Structures are given as C-alpha cells and as structure tokens.
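Notes from hallway chat w/ T.B., transcribed later so I don't forget. T.B. wanted the structure written out for a chain they're using in a teaching module, and asked if we could keep both sequence and structure tokens in one place. Agreed to drop them here.
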Amino acid sequence: MSEFDLIRTHFAALGSTREDVILGVGDDCALLTVPPGQQLAVSIDTLAAGVHFLPDCDPEALGHKCLAVGLSDLAAMGAAPAWATLALTLPADLPRTSPDWLAAFAHGFGQLALAHGVALVGGDTTRGPLSITVQVHGLIPVGAAVRRAGARAGDLVCVSGTLGDAGLALRALLAGEVPASDLRARLERPTPRVAVGLALRGLASAMIDCSDGLAADLGHILTASGVGAELDLAALPLTGAVAAAVAETGDWGLPLASGDDYELCFCLPAGYRERLAVIAARCGCPLTPIGRVLTGSGLVCRSPAGAVVALDAAGFDHFAAGAR
C-alpha cells in the first residue's frame, strides 16, 4: 500500500463532518473557518513507542489515546474540540504497518473523534520508529479561556474522576503482570473530560489536565498564579485498587506523581463549592475538593494523620534522570 493509498483507505474521511471545514484531507493545506467571536485553542502532543505506550499496545486503544491526550488539553482551557491533524510515523516491519493494524488504529481514533465532533483535516505519514503526533484545535469565546494563571488564596483545589489507576496499571505491565481490565483501560483509553472543562468555564479560576502527575501539574498552576497550596491526601478520590496499594506500600506517589490520569485539576472560588455536585451529575464525572490555595508558594501534602508527606518526584519529566 502506497502512502496515498494508506491515507485514502484509512484517514481521508475520519471523524466528524463539519461545516467549518472548507477543505480537509487531500490538499497541501486544510482550509478552516473560525466563527466570529471565537478564539482558536491549539495543542500538539507526540506519543512515542516505549515512552508513552508499550510497543505491543492494542492499536485501537492507541488510536483512541493519541487523540484523547489532545482533547484533554482542550478541556483544560474550556475549549470545544473542532479539528485535528495527524502525523503518523510507521516502522517497516509487520504487523504494525499491516492493513489490520492501521484499520484498528483508525477506528479507535475515529470513534473518539466522532464522539467529540472532531474532523481530521490533514497530516502526514512517513517511515521510522513508531510515533504519533496529533495536533488538536478547539474553539472558545474570546476572553473565556481558563488558564493556569488565575488561582487565588482561598480557592478550593479540586480534581475530576479518580487518580492513580493508570499508574497502577503501568506498574503491573512493567512488572510482567496483567492489570485488571478497568485499570488497563484507564491507561490505554483515557477519557478526556471535555464536558467538565466546558461546564467549568466561567467558574474555575485556573485549570490544567493531569498528564504528568497531580503534584507536578498542580505545581504549574501554583507557579503561574504566584500562590501555594495544601492538599489533604485523605480527600484524594481513589479507586479501591489504588487505595489498597497506597495502604500496603505507603506510597502516595502512585496517585500524586505517576501520571497518565488525564483528569482535570482546577481551582474554584469557595463560593462555587455547591455547584460541584450539579456539574458532576450533569457530566457524569465525580468532582472532588482535595485542598485549598494559600498565599506564598509551594505545595504541601498532608497525610490522613496530618503529617507532611514528601514525594521522591513530583511527576514524569522526559528529560529527568531515570525517565521511563
């Protein structure tokens, strides 16, 4: 299959059909219309084999995840997803470049794109070590973006969903074990919290998605906002499996620093606390206060007994020693 056959077969009509796409896949550039009064939110992520996913990862799950991580970025700013581009680097060896692998990858990508109204409008394919780069584009009313800079002392620190599930699944896989199916799904098929991000627009003072670990990602909010925060670890939303692992090992790094959660961490003025339950019910996703923003700087984590918990590492860093 030639490069152009590959594109026509698997990617030319992938995702939603949108009226704001004047010209999509198949020309030198896509032509897109940004509606009046809207700003364009753009984010790009690269997923590389052996770094962001295991080489034998299910291709349908991989197609899902490579789009989900970008949609999570849009969610963190309160942007509505619109378009995506895909750059796919494929190795020469089979079965990765076989039609079955590509069909499964495209299906995973396409189903998530359809679910969020995203049109695939362009990209590139080439030979090399397996990696996927996806750029996402979202629309947001002028001045309505939720940024990292905006948290104020007295705000609640909150998170969506649960923490540490993906990290627990990855630990099992790296140890040669088979993780529970629900944990593996959290690692390989994360749910971008787009509806939550849209619902928090105009309410949250600051927001970020948790891709590298809650402590590290919240740290970015604190630095950008010029504030500190204190977390109550007893309030962290944990599944039974993660709670059991923390109880057995005492390792709070699992929910705080293992990454790949793709939940939203946000700061919320305390007066809006009662709205959390309403938003959670409407979006079908738990929203949990886990701490508060303080004057000063830095992050303090307190154990259920009230002791300060020190972390060996705040989160994943590609260029730190020992990065996976």
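Follow-up for T.B.: The chain has two domains: 3-141, 156-302. Might be a good example for the class.
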